[in-house]
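Troubleshooting log. The previous structure file for this entry was overwritten by mistake, so regenerating from the original sequence record. Sequence copied from the archived sheet and checked twice against the printout by T.R.
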Amino acid sequence: MNTHPYLRAFLAGTFVPTLILPLMLTGFIVVRLVFEIPFPIERGLVFPMALVPCLWALWNVLWLGSHAWTHLPIGLHGALLPLLLLPSGAAVASCLGIIVLGAQGVTWFHTLYVPYAWIAPCFLAGLAVYYLAWKYIVGFLNRVLGIA
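Regenerated output below.
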């Protein structure tokens, strides 16, 4: 009998972003419509909401397939994902005009300016969150599904 470990890895990988992204969307809708803050975030939300769960799933499948020879812990493997997501997301967003990269910082949607000095600590915090989510949640799901 074929147990389909890659399908189970795909499903375990989609679990976290599938739960978190709708909560984030709800928060953005409240900020945009209830508090009437003029921030056109919906332009930049649709594409990541479709792409991020698939990337997490494929990243988990990659971990399962490469774990035999890399022996990389799942938390560290998951913390590497933002190192791919940030540059590729920034490149796509700058091509679409969602962000403008300046000399001192980034301007989102022509309204919100964030200096690079703030982006670096936020990125490191994001790496820590990814590490913990992958180590404890995705790792737990992999063990429950019998693929870790």
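The chain has a mean pLDDT of 89. Archived copy saved in two places this time.
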